[in-house]
Amino acid sequence: MPTLDDILEHIGEFNFFQKQAFCFLCLLSAAFAPIYVGIVFLGFTPDHHCFNPGVAELSKRCGWSLEEELNYTEPGLGVPEDIFTRQCRRYDVNWNQTALSCMDPLANFTSNRSHIPLTTCQDGWVYDTPGSSIVTEFNLVCADSWKVDLFQSCVNVGFFLGSVGTGYMADRFGRKVCLLITIFITSLSGVLMAISPNYASMLIFRFLQGLVSKGSWASAYILITEFVGAAYRRTVGILFQMSFAVGLVMLSGIAYVIPHWRWLQLTVTLPTFFFLLYYWCVPESPRWLLSQKKNAKAIKIMEHIAQKNGKQLPANLKTLSLEDDDDTEKLSPSFGDLFRTPQMRKHTFILMYIWFSGSVLYQGIIMYMGATAVNLHLDFLYSSLVEFPASFIIIFTIDRVGRRYPLATSNFIGGVVCLILIFIPDDIHWLKVTLACLSRLGITTVIQMICLVNAELYPTFVRNLGVMVCSSLCDVGGIIAPFIVFRLTEIWHKLPLILFAVIGLLATGMVLLLPETKGKVLPETIEDVENLGKRKPKNTKIFLQTEKSKDMGN
User: Fold this and answer.
1) For residue 163, which of 217, 215, 240 has the smallest C-alpha distance?
2) Average confidence (pLDDT) over 359-387
3) Mean pLDDT of 112-120
4) Domain assignment present for 52
5) Distance from C-alpha of 189 to C-alpha of 194, rounded to nearest angstrom
6) Which has the least CB within 10 A, 56, 253, 267, 287?
């Protein structure tokens, strides 16, 4: 009985239908970017200082400029390193006294400013920005600055918890059903987040968006890879991930034009409701239908694909199967299989760490560049552009060089560049941005390549489970990345780079412990995995050379 791949060879493995579906679904991949890293603009923390009504009145009476007002009334200005005092403390004095001098108002209280008591910003803050963010609206600074970390961690918790549920939905009810449901919930929760009246409700909708948005991206990824033939599957998967970079570039432009977070959130969310049109544009996966024994529907979709591609389904291929051998015994996967044998244990622990480290560095570098940027939008744009060459590097090297060395090199670049950044002076901004982009190029290559390597190191019957378990550590990395960046930056602004360097360089060494899978047949059993990377013993042949006597022929 012919397989679905056999039929795709006749009706087109990547023709008009597949290209059309690919373009449609890539739009969804691009729209996922604001959800994944939108914190850079939604949670932007501008320079700020305490608001004091008495100071405002005195400044108006004296005719001070903003610079003069800060110089006369704000603590910590003479110590550049003391950012906390400058942004989170104010002098505990009565600024409403009429006897205060406009030339040196603090002289009325003491001759030494350091003796004046300080207090918290009881009346709020003044933010040096023309726009707004969740930070400026909900005052997520100083004692409440950790709430920005929680905002980003919340979406990653949603990714982590939702991956299991949406994965089950896609396998149980179909890729298309899962795609449409998650699109609707993602869009609705995004709108509700934009109109949230307070921080708590915004956090709930942010979590809900994370709970389903990664599922919609994964469903689209599965759909497009199941529509194309085997020869195009890998390239299409990489290009689908590259469309995420298109979303990053677009996000930087939209955020520049729309500097107010609520309008920005609505702008990137409302168009996603149009993805519900996939109901008419994208059919169900014929591979999933075959796995559910719905062969008639699968054949009908294959006929639709053939018609779109200008081909005709051959008469002798009106029946099909999912696999070449329907009688093959099916093995039931279990979590214990991932740790049952030495090689399986090694692969699982190493892959889990690579997923974790890749996520920490990827999200961490993006947030770190946002937190330390001189020009937020341009720095974000430059670092987003490097994701395009990362995809092409994978396409052109993975079958020529292999998997292990490019993956190790990419981890090394991501880690060692962070180490170099520690020693770059802050005033050489162009060099800092260039090196940060180079580090992001390396770690982006890791993120895109590990998907392929992960699948190639597990046997068929436990492959999906292995990828799901290992990649869940990516979400764990995303949960802690904001706290690493924002909390450590408050201690010393280069401290996160030290941790990134250690994590990346450790991942480099661990990748080299994995076997090379280039040119290897995908393992079918655990025994195949145990034999991966082992050299086959050479056949030792002994040749006996005999010299015939010259007299022999006589």
Assistant:
1) 215
2) 86
3) 77
4) yes
5) 9
6) 253
